[in-house]
Amino acid sequence: MKILIAGLGSIGRRHLRNLVALGQRDIMLFRTGHSTLPEEELTVFPVETDLGVALAQKPDAVIIANPTALHLDIALPAAKAGCHLFIEKPIAAKWDERIETLSRIVLKDHLKTLVGFQFRFHPVLERIKEMIASGDIGRLLSFRIHWGEYLPGWHPWEDYRLGYAARRDLGGGVVNTLCHPLDYVRWLFGEVESLAAMTGHVSDLELDVEDVAEISLKLANEGIGSVHLDYFQRPPAHWIAVNCENGAVHWDKASGAAKVYYVDGDQREIIAPPERFERNALFLDEMQHFLALVNGEAESRCNLEDGIMALKMTEAVHTSAKKGCIVRL
Predict the structure, then answer these.
(1) pTM for the whole thing?
(2) What's the CA gap between 41 and 157, in Å, rounded?
(3) Range of the domain at 315
(4) Is 297 inside a domain boundary?
(5) Residue 8 forms part of a structural domain
């Protein structure tokens, strides 16, 4: 399989290393030269600086890991060239008519797509999804998701003010950058019917984007929940709390484990990740799934349509915050 990687920042480098770990060797790099990371690990791979020249070499798949605002600049030409697509989240900084064109090409040419929402590959979250779907702890009533990060400590090798997450022109902001919960809400709990949000820039961080968001959501199945996102929390925290008719679940990213409470019998259970589980396992499993997808051995666990729904939710958050209204999806 010939694979082209577009974007060699931290996530592009992670995908590159994981591809190599999975035995892939025919890898090309499309580069603009804006990465702030060392160059040594890239010197063994062929590099192209012209996208047309890179696509003319007929890669089977393209991994799109450049800044959010530039995703479609790669995805659309790659799709037109017949390449299968791995697109980092979110698929775009905001709604763009090119998304409809991309979707039509993907459907017409039967292209395989995967959007980089790696929490769908977390083994404990997969188990929680199964518990909710099976009704093991009864009907979902409410949920609360909290994710706070300290942006200056995120990429310590670079000035946080220059990274895509801090810049409006590159598609940054806490809603776009930490949009994973807006995807896994649908995956874990079901479709979102409507949402209302407040966003702002409340810290002293030097940004031209929002650094906090409070989002309330109503599900199609009548469950109600909320998502908190921020760029200033120290130490960082990411957790999910779920209340159901016959029990409750609390998952913490730091340990990777979930605590489950069953009303019947006042029982408690710990769902732990596999021994020696670590963060890169999500990305490695995700990339292994993409290779299987391209080879026709799997169905996408997060396709372009899922990516479009996540983008519609980020758009709804921004619209709600700006207009002070409830947005129906």
Answers:
(1) 0.96
(2) 16
(3) 119-275+304-328
(4) no
(5) yes
